[in-house]
Design a protein that fits this description.
Elements (H helix, E strand, L loop, with lengths): L2 H13 L6 H30 L1 H5 L3 E6 L5 H10 L2 E14 L2 E10 L10 E3 L4 H6 L6 E4 L1 H7 L6 E4 L2 E11 L13 E5 L16 E7 L6 H11 L6 E4 L5 H39 L1 H9 L4 H33 L1 H7 L10 H24 L23 H22 L2 H33 L8 H11 L5 H36 L3 E6 L4 H9 L4 E17 L2 E2 H5 L9 E5 L8 E5 L11 E5 H7 L6 E6 L2 E12 L11 E3 L1 H4 L5 E8 L1 H14 L4 E4 H40 L1 H13 L4 H38 L8 H27 L3 H7 L2
Parallel strand pairs: 3-8, 5-7, 14-19, 16-18
Antiparallel strand pairs: 1-9, 1-10, 2-3, 2-6, 2-9, 4-7, 5-8, 6-7, 11-20, 11-21, 12-13, 12-14, 12-17, 12-20, 15-18, 16-19, 17-18
Helix pairs in contact: 1-10, 2-8, 2-10, 2-12, 2-22, 8-12, 8-14, 8-16, 8-22, 10-12, 12-13, 13-14, 14-15, 14-16, 14-24, 15-24, 16-22, 16-24, 16-25, 22-25, 23-25, 23-26, 24-25
Length: about 850
C-alpha cells in the first residue's frame, strides 16, 4: 500500500469539490451537534451543582430525621463536631385567610438560617425582621403564588395549620430550594420557635427535621459521614453533603440527558443511512476512475486508502461543524436555560462533552462508511469498458465485517460509559437494530408487492400507476434508502408521540375516574373517629379509607446494609410510609405466605409488596430492620401482597402487626372519594373542626406532575424532531442523487409520448407508496417500543393513539412527496434531446 500516493490522489480529487457529499456533512453535523448540545447542557448543570453544592444544600453536610427532632445528646454531638449548626423543620400544611385555603410547604427555620447564601424578600427587609412579625404575631414569608392565589397583601393576618401569623414579605429567592425536591405546594417560611410546641410539630405528625452543618475546610466528608452513622442514632437518619446538594435534580438531569443522547444516537443512525448512501453514490460515479487505477496497476489497498482519506477528511469537517454548533447552542440559549432551571448552571464550552460527541460521531461514521467503502476492492478493470457496476453489490469481505462488529461494540461501550446505564443503552441498541431489520425487510416486501401489482389487471390502462409500481419494485431503485431514512426518524417520533399521548390520557382521563378526591394527612389518634364519623354521615362521600401511618427508613435486610443487599431500589432511597393492622385489610390480596393472627403478640412480622419484593430479591423468612423515630425495629417477612399504586389511592409497601408499632407516636391518613359538589363544604367543615390536618386535592397534585411531564415531553419531542430532520436531510439527499436518473427516465417517457402530467403522477405515486410504507412500519415499531415503555417501565395500560398515528402517516407521505416532486419537477424541465445526447 502506497500511503503517500493515496493521499496525493485523494487531495487532488477533493480539489474538484465535494458535490454529492453535502448529505454526509449535514447528517453527521446535525447528529454530532445534537449530542454535543445535550451533553454540554448536562455538564453545565453538573458543574453548577458541584460548584454551588454547599449553597444548594445550605451547608457542607446535612443530617435529616423523620418525625422527630434530634435529642439533646445528638444535638450536642453536632455542636461539638461542626463549626455551626442550623435546625430546620419541613412539613405540609394548609394556609387560610377567611374562607380561602391553599396547600403550602412550610419551612420552619432557626436564627442561624441560612448558613450559606441569602434569602431575598420583597419588600427588601431582612429575614430576621420578617420572621419577627408585628402586632404580637410571628411573621411568615410566602411564595408570591400564595399571595396571588389567596389575594393577600403584606400585613394580612393568616393561619397555618390553625396557628396565627402575619404575612410580612414575598419570597423571591430561597438559596436552598433545589435541595427540597418535588413539593405539592408553594413555599412558606416561618420561625421554628413559633411552632416548636404546637400540634403541627408534635410526636406522630408528618414532618422532617434537617440539621445543616458548617464543617472545617479540611473535613473528609466520607469519614465524617461514617463516623456520624456510627455515633448518632445508629445511623437512623439521612445524610447528604455538598457533593450532592440537589440529588433529585442531578438524577433527573442525568436520566433525561442520557435518554436524549440515545435519541441523538438514533439520529446518527438515521444520518448513517444517508452517509452510506452518499458514499455509495459517490463511488458509483467513480467506478471508471477506480477501474482505470486498477488497469494502471494500483493496488487494491491503495485505492481503498484514496477514498478512505477523502471520506475521512469530510467526516472530520462534518464533526467539526457539529461540535461548533453543539458548543454554541448552549451559549446562545444560556439566558433561557438559566431562567428555566432552579439550579446554578456553569454555561461554557465543556471539552469533555465535545469529546463524547466526537467519539459518537467518528464511530458512527466509520460504521456506515466502511460498508460501501470496502467494496471498492471488488470493482474490476472490466468496468472501464462496460456500462455496468461490478463491485458495489454483495457483502464486504469478512475482515471488514469483523472491523464493523468491533466498531459497533466500541460505540455501545462508549454509550454505556458516558451514560452510565447499560440496560438503557442495550435495549435502545436492540430497538434500533430491530427497526433497521424491520425497515429493510419491509422495503423489500414493498418492492416485491409493487412488482406483482405492476403486472396485475388493476394497473393495466393506468400508465402513471404502472410506472410508479415498476419503479418502486425495480432494481437499483431508492425504495430501501427512502424507507430506512424516513422510517427510522418516524419510528422515534411515533414512539415518543404514543408515550406522550398515553401518559396524558392516563393522567387526564383514567386517574380521575378511580382516584380519591382528597388525601387527608396529620390526623391525630384522638381525631380519627371524629373525621370518620363526619365522612360516614355525608351523602356526597361515596367511599373513604383510613389507616395509621408512620415513616421509617429501611436500614438492613438480613443483617446487611439495605442498599448493599437490594441495590439502589426506590424503596431503599429515603423514608417510606409504614402502617400496621391486626386484621388483614379487605382489599389486601396475599400472593405468598400468610397474614398474622388478629391476636398476635409475638416478635414483629412484616407483609411486603410482592412486586417490589421480587425486584429487591426478597423471600419469605428474610428479616428487615426499619428505623422509626430513631428506634430500630427488626421483623420477619411472613407474607407478600399485591399493592396497586395506579389508582392513586392508599397503598403501603410495608405493613407490620399492630403490637410492633401501635405504641409509637403516629398519625392517621385518609382518602376521600366524594362528588364534586360535596367537596367544598366537607373540606371547610374538617378545617374548622381540625385546623391542624392537611387536605391535599388530588387534581392539584396531578397538575404538578403534569407540568413536569410536559417539560419532559417537550424535550423528548424536540429530540425526536431532530432525528426526523436528519431523516429529511437523508431523504432530500436520496432525491437529489436520483435526479439524474429521473431526468433520463422523464426524457425517455417524453420521447415515447407520455405527458408531463402522467410522468409527474408516476413520480408522485412512487413517493407516496414509499412514504406510506415507511410510516406504517414506523407506527408498528414505534408503537411496540411505546407499549414496552408504558407496560414494563411505567406499569400503566397502553392504548394505541390513532390521532398521533394518522399524523405520522400523513407526515411521512407529505415529506416524501415534497422532496421527490421538487427534484422531479427540475428533471422535467430539461429537454429530452439534451438528456439523451449526453448519454451517448
Amino acid at each position: 500500500m502506497n500511503v503517500k500516493l493515496a493521499w496525493t490522489i485523494a487531495r487532488r480529487e477533493l480539489r474538484a469539490g465535494i458535490r454529492g457529499f453535502w448529505v454526509l456533512i449535514a447528517c453527521l453535523a446535525l447528529g454530532v451537534a445534537a449530542i454535543a448540545g445535550v451533553t454540554s447542557v448536562r455538564e453545565s448543570i453538573a458543574q453548577g451543582l458541584d460548584r454551588e453544592g454547599a449553597a444548594l444544600l445550605g451547608g457542607q453536610g446535612e443530617m435529616e430525621f423523620t418525625y422527630r427532632f434530634a435529642t439533646d445528646d445528638e444535638r450536642a454531638w453536632m455542636d461539638e463536631n461542626a463549626l455551626a449548626v442550623s435546625e430546620i423543620a419541613d412539613f405540609r400544611s394548609m394556609i387560610t385567610i377567611g374562607e380561602e385555603r391553599a396547600l403550602t410547604q412550610v419551612k420552619a427555620v432557626d436564627g442561624a438560617y441560612p448558613l450559606i447564601g441569602a434569602v431575598t424578600l420583597s419588600p427588601q427587609i431582612t429575614i430576621e425582621a420578617a420572621l419577627a412579625g408585628q402586632g404580637g404575631l410571628s411573621g411568615a414569608i410566602l411564595d408570591p403564588m400564595l399571595f396571588e392565589r389567596l389575594g393577600l397583601s403584606v400585613g394580612d393576618e393568616i393561619a397555618i395549620g390553625g396557628e396565627r401569623f402575619v404575612a410580612m414579605a414575598q419570597l423571591t429567592r430561597e438559596p436552598d430550594n433545589a435541595s427540597a425536591g418535588f413539593s405539592l405546594g408553594p413555599r412558606s417560611i416561618v420561625a421554628l420557635e413559633a411552632l416548636r410546641d404546637t400540634s403541627l410539630l408534635s410526636a406522630g405528625t408528618l414532618f422532617e427535621t434537617a440539621y445543616r452543618l458548617t464543617l472545617p475546610i479540611e473535613t473528609d466528608l466520607d469519614a465524617f459521614e461514617a463516623r456520624a452513622k456510627r455515633e448518632v442514632a445508629d445511623g437512623g437518619f439521612r445524610w447528604r453533603d455538598a457533593r450532592n446538594g440537589a440529588p433529585g435534580v442531578a438524577r433527573f438531569v442525568e436520566r433525561l440527558s442520557s435518554f436524549l443522547v440515545l435519541v441523538g444516537l438514533a439520529g446518527l443512525a438515521v444520518g448513517g443511512v444517508g452517509v452510506s448512501a452518499a458514499v455509495r453514490a459517490y463511488l458509483d460515479r467513480k467506478t471508471s476512475v477506480i477501474a482505470t487505477l486498477k488497469t494502471l496497476g494500483a493496488e487494491r489497498s491503495t485505492i481503498l486508502m484514496v477514498y478512505a482519506f477523502q471520506v475521512g477528511v469530510l467526516t472530520l469537517i462534518s464533526i467539526s461543524i457539529g461540535l461548533v454548533l453543539g458548543a454554541l447552542a448552549p451559549l446562545l440559549a444560556a439566558p433561557i436555560i438559566e431562567a428555566q432551571l432552579p439550579v446554578p448552571v456553569v454555561v461554557g464550552v465543556h471539552v469533555g462533552s465535545l469529546i463524547e460527541a466526537s467519539v459518537y460521531g467518528i464511530l458512527s461514521a466509520a460504521i456506515f462508511v466502511l460498508w460501501p467503502l470496502s467494496r471498492v476492492e471488488q470493482i474490476r478493470p472490466a468496468a472501464l469498458y462496460r456500462d455496468a457496476q461490478f463491485g458495489l453489490r454483495g457483502l464486504p469481505r469478512f475482515r471488514y465485517l469483523i472491523a464493523m462488529f468491533i466498531m459497533i461494540a466500541a460505540l455501545l461501550g462508549s454509550a454505556i460509559l458516558f451514560t452510565d446505564s447499560a440496560r438503557l443503552v442495550i435495549w435502545s441498541f436492540v430497538g434500533v437494530v430491530g427497526s433497521f431489520v424491520l425497515l429493510v425487510l419491509s422495503a423489500r416486501a414493498v418492492a416485491w408487492m409493487a412488482r406483482r401489482a405492476a403486472k396485475a389487471r388493476l394497473s393495466k390502462g393506468r400508465t402513471g400507476l404502472r410506472l410508479a409500481l415498476s419503479s418502486v419494485g425495480g432494481p437499483g431503485g431508492e425504495t430501501t434508502s427512502v424507507v430506512l431514512s424516513l422510517g427510522l426518524g418516524l419510528t422515534v417520533l411515533s414512539a415518543v408521540g404514543q408515550i406522550d399521548t398515553n401518559l396524558r390520557n392516563a393522567i387526564a382521563q383514567d386517574l380521575p375516574e378511580v382516584a380519591p378526591s382528597y388525601f387527608v394527612v396529620d390526623i391525630q389518634p384522638d381525631q380519627i373517629e371524629g373525621v370518620l364519623t363526619r365522612l360516614s354521615q355525608d351523602a356526597g362521600v361515596t367511599n373513604y379509607e383510613s389507616a395509621p401511618m408512620l415513616r421509617g427508613i429501611i436500614t438492613q435486610i438480613n443483617g446487611v446494609d439495605a442498599e448493599t443487599y437490594a441495590g439502589p431500589h426506590w424503596v431503599i432511597r429515603g423514608d417510606r410510609g409504614i402502617t400496621y393492622s391486626a386484621a388483614k385489610p379487605e382489599n389486601a390480596e396475599i400472593t405468598e405466605g400468610a397474614w398474622w393472627p388478629e391476636d398476635y403478640t409475638g416478635p414483629p412480622q412484616i407483609s411486603f409488596a410482592a412486586e417490589e419484593a421480587e425486584e429487591m430479591g426478597l423471600k419469605l423468612g428474610d428479616t428487615m430492620t426499619v428505623n422509626v423515630l430513631g428506634r430500630d425495629i427488626t421483623g420477619e417477612i411472613t407474607s407478600f401482597r399485591e399493592v396497586d399504586f395506579s389508582g392513586a389511592g392508599m397503598g403501603f409497601v410495608l405493613s407490620m402487626n399492630d403490637t410492633a408499632l401501635r405504641g409509637a407516636p403516629h398519625s392517621h391518613i385518609a382518602t376521600i372519594y366524594a362528588a364534586p359538589e360535596a367537596e367544598a363544604p366537607l373540606i371547610r367543615d374538617l378545617a374548622k373542626a381540625y385546623p391542624n390536618i392537611t387536605t391535599i386535592r388530588v387534581r392539584d397534585a396531578i397538575g404538578r406532575v403534569v407540568s413536569v411531564l410536559e417539560g419532559i415531553a417537550a424535550a423528548t419531542t424536540l429530540g425526536a424532531l431532530a432525528t426526523l430532520i436528519t431523516g429529511a436531510v437523508v431523504l432530500v439527499g436520496a432525491a437529489a442523487a436520483g435526479e439524474s436518473k429521473r431526468r433520463y427516465e422523464a426524457a425517455i417517457l417524453k420521447t415515447l409520448g407520455a405527458s408531463r402530467l402522467t410522468i409527474l403522477l408516476s413520480f408522485a405515486l412512487r413517493s407516496a407508496l414509499m412514504g406510506f410504507a415507511a410510516a406504517i412500519v414506523a407506527l408498528a415499531a414505534g408503537g411496540l417500543a411505546a407499549w414496552a415503555v408504558i407496560r414494563f417501565v411505567m406499569s400503566a395500560e397502553f392504548h394505541f393513539a390513532w390521532g398521533s398515528a394518522v399524523l405520522i402517516v400523513i407526515g411521512g407521505i407529505a415529506l416524501t412527496l415534497v422532496t421527490s416532486l421538487w427534484f422531479s419537477w427540475r428533471a422535467m424541465r430539461v429537454r429530452p434531446a439534451r438528456v439523451l445526447r449526453a448519454q451517448d
